[in-house]
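Because showing beats explaining, we let one protein speak, sequence and backbone structure tokens together, and leave readers to judge.
___
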Amino acid sequence: MKISFRSVSLDQARRRRTGGWLLPVFLALISTGASAESPPAGGSGDSRARAAALQSVSSARMLADIHTLSGESFQGRQTGSVGDRRAAEWVAARFAALHLTVVPVFSSEAADSSSLPPDPAPSVPVSIIGDDPHLEASTARGMTAGRAPADYLPILDSPPVDTTAPVVFVGYGISDTARGYDDYAGLDVRNRIVLFMRGKPDHYPVPVSHAEKERIARENGAVGFLTVTGPILNPYEARRGMTTAPSAFYGRQGGGIPLPGAWISPAFADRLLSSAVGGDQPLRALQERVNQSRRPHSRPAGSVVRMAWDSLRTSGPLYNVIASIPGREPDLKEQPVILGAHRDHFGRQAGLLFPGADDNASGTAVVLEVARILAEAGVQPARTITFVSFDGEEQGLLGSRSYVDRHVTGPVKPTGMINVDHAGVGNGRLTVGVTGFDKQVAQEAGQSAGLAEQLDLFGFFPGGDHVPFKEAGVPTITVVSGGSHAHYHKPTDTPDTVNPRILESAARYVLALVWQLADSR
């Protein structure tokens, strides 16, 4: 992704926004114009300024931002959609309201004779499941019609489908003859719908992606798939506070041909497996057998499923919105501290609006609040502080990968990247994943914010916009609210589920961390 930047005045930027939210200026790099009278960071005054800044964190302001981002106007903020475009410009306008100098990137239809040649945002796929999907099962107990989203959700980049076929349980959906583990051994799944559990058994040594499982199913002749989170969660799933309910999800086949498929609930899977396995919880029984025996327990499920839905596949632009406070030290300002949160969510799918309040309007609100406090305080950090509202996270970290490809180049690396994701619900604690920094750095920020006893520190936190930075050799810290996120990737992720105390704690901690790193030597 190539991006051309050109400085314009705040008045010019405001005039160009008068056409409304649909103006083709959506990707912005913004930098502060700190006052010459602002005191430099450091010294005795800095401690007082930092304490005052921490006290000024406003959960009410952040909740208002979450309500706005989760509202009907932005339609779930699906990457590449009109709602996403409106949300991107809304975030850019919020930065501009802090009296920052905007350096926009215009899309190809922008007309400005004095601008550099336009460098439009990259085009990304946009997939939408139609409003009336069907998942129906015929079992020994009779016909069952699944209800979305309680019983199932189609995979969001699934192709259109109307097919009926017998179901075959294939364990975790792994076929690895080199390691002596094959869930498909001895089974004929041609013209069948396969049912596999998400994740992998504890004894299998390497991770397996959903895309790999889908590819294996397709190569074995399956006409569709169902996936389910087993009732026995692994430690990572438990730490993330994940549930077993169906969630919005992209299969992300890349260049491969996607199979039609759906994520189903354990209860729906139990209905499908009731003829093949005895007991009240056949899925749990099979998961325990696979995990304990260290061998597959695949079998025909004894049920038939009809899956039917329409889907639309188009494309649209991806917009990262970027802002920065320039550093004051010549030898440090080119080593920025990056604070980011993804803005995108899933839009409207299968007739359901996915508001994305906790995931990740909450993280976006934290970034906006930290930017507001630092800008209004006239902070002049030693290092540049860069704020990024990433797009495309839910579709495979598209925005953060694009940012790293464009901006994290050459021998001089950013000091670190802080990622804030679903920071508004849970048990009142903060889960902090640290790579490339000593964990003491994260702990000291907790002490500064008065939150040291609320932190749970871990190493690498898999998944999220920090991952491309880690892969590029940049130290990262990920901040997530701890405990269960019962509405994660569900239509019920609404603003009323966000806890203002948790949100405030997350913002205070992130503010202290950014301030500390930006002035570190």
Remarks:
- Residues 394 and 504 are 25 Å apart (CA to CA).
